[in-house]
Amino acid sequence: MQAIIVKEFGSADQLSLGAIPDLVPGEGEVVIQVEAAGVGLVDVLQRQGFLGVSAPGYIPGVEVAGRVMAVGPSVDEHLKGQRVFAMGQGGYAQQFLANAKELVPLPEQVSSETAVSLGVNALVASFSITRARLEAGERLLVRGASGGIGAMVAQLAVRRGAVVTAVTSPGMADSVAALGVQHVVRRGTDSQPKGPFDVIIDPVAGEATLAFIETLAFNGRYIVNGAAAGFPPAAISQVLLQGFTKSPTYSLLSLDSVPQEEKLAEVTALFAQAARGELKAPIAQILPLREAAEAHRMLEAGGFFGKVVLKP
User: Fold this and answer.
1) CATH architecture type of domain 2-106+282-311
2) Which residue, among 152, 163, 150, has the nearest Cα to 114 in the 3D structure?
3) Strands 95-99 vs 2-6: parallel, antiparallel or unpaired
4) Which CATH architecture has domain 124-255?
5) Three-class SS of 276-287
6) 97-111 burial, b for 16+ CB within 10 Å, e for fewer?
7) Strands 139-142 and 163-168
8) Residue 23 has pLDDT above 90, yes or no
9) Could you give the residue ranges of the DSSP H alpha helices within 101-180?
10) Mean pLDDT score of the chain
11) What is the pLDDT of residue 13?
12) Is the dihedral of CA 88, 89, 93, 97 positive or negative?
């Protein structure tokens, strides 16, 4: 089969298409014929040498959708041919090895491309909202609202009844407004939102995190769930202490901290919402597997709306 290999940690040029042996499922495992693989910031950070991959030579990609093509010992043969979504490592390939107990069946109305467009992004968004204890009527600021995670946060928060302010680039403002948010702030064009905000959910981070923390209301909650602009600066503790009398809360959200059974239950519910037409899954572009490096360059450059998907 064909797969993308990270030859060395570094730039997108380190992503190389190669041929490797077909996968063989072991006890309790299945092999999925990959129809779509999601491309996310976690893949970029891993490629750069961060976030849990200890050495180069691995296959990137943490989410796929496709059909079960082979099952291992003790796995129900009836799984063969079923359309499923799965998470793990090694998604940029024609085949993906998964635990049979961790497969999520796909509704007929949800395509493989839609599944990975929702997938991890929607999970991060949903658990961030839960972590923030967002209530109907509260004021929420979403940074990076045209990105995969930000667009999901905006939609889910609108459905919860929050008053949503979304920060995005000028070219993406109309697309973000179509998600149903009440206020759109065009980065670099409009003045920075002053708040106060009860909750800020931030997949962007970077140096600007400090200024956004200062817009929190009394008992405000700030959730960082990504680092599209780089990791938050070390001076955060000082800014939080300066706002001591407002009792702000600052926390991080990684899906790695969420029990697997909770992730599987939640993504099943999210797919059901998409099947009913209650959630949009914006897809920026679908690229062939061989163009994985271009997909990573797109993520690093930004300026698009929705998810980048690879199609083996």
Assistant:
1) Alpha-Beta Complex (3.90)
2) 152
3) unpaired
4) 3-Layer(aba) Sandwich (3.40)
5) CCCCCCCEEEEE
6) bbbbebbbebeeebb
7) parallel
8) yes
9) 112-132, 148-160, 173-177
10) 95
11) 97
12) negative
